[in-house]
Amino acid sequence: MDTQPLVSICVPAYNSAEFILKTIQSILNQTYTNLEVVITDDCSKDSTSQIINSFEDDRIKYFQNTENLGVEKNWNKTLRLSQGKYCKVMGADDIMYPTFIEEQVKILEDAQYANVVLVTSHKHVIDQNDTLIITRKFPGKGRIEGIKAVKMSLVRGANVIGEPVAGLFRKDVLEKSGLYSGENLYMIDLDQWSRILKFGDLYVIDSVLYAFRISSTSISSSLGFAQVGLFNAFVDKLYSDKTFRINRFEMIIAKSMALAMGFARNIVYLIYFRKSRVA
Asked: What CATH number does the domain located at 1-92 have?
């Protein structure tokens, strides 16, 4: 419909041949149709470009970098090239279920949610074979005050708002919040959410609407306990930002939970990926 606002799905890619076919298909299969798919290929050395070029859909806008930009610059390039009213950055291996964008836009277009700047949902965590590992739910639903939503992540020692694919946000908010920062790559998504949520509220759709993929070669699984230190550095950063009103008790809880989550996460990786290799 012509009345649908344009939504930009930004897909930074690098050596993404293994999964990008399914990722693009999940975007093109959305019930919401007024989309542009902005893909920036950061000098892939595999068949990423051939797979992308196999699609015949004028909503796909494919850009091949002339030099490798790295995560921060490549992610931000997709946003700079986007023209939608609403934007989402999506990993080149993640999956959106068919009604995801439709349901997110419905919230952002609703006048009663004019102060909502970011919409997310619950998720499936899947492996390289699309096998469901776990269903993860945000500890709440509906509209949640932005600063409160960030603190809910901190005191749980994990990014419960979700990875980049989770969030659909208002493009004009980026003028105030700024683009992605590569200062702490492990926390690049929650850092971005924290800056966006300074300017409005979060809305959590009470449904599982996307799948986030992990594998033995993913950043999360390869970092091990280094994740705890990176999370704690982010806690310190937000503690020093008076906007978030984090007290010392909350800081201690956040770091304690980060350690507990680090143990739990690494046990899961150890058991699951060992089992996968045996299978």
From this structure: 3.90.550.10
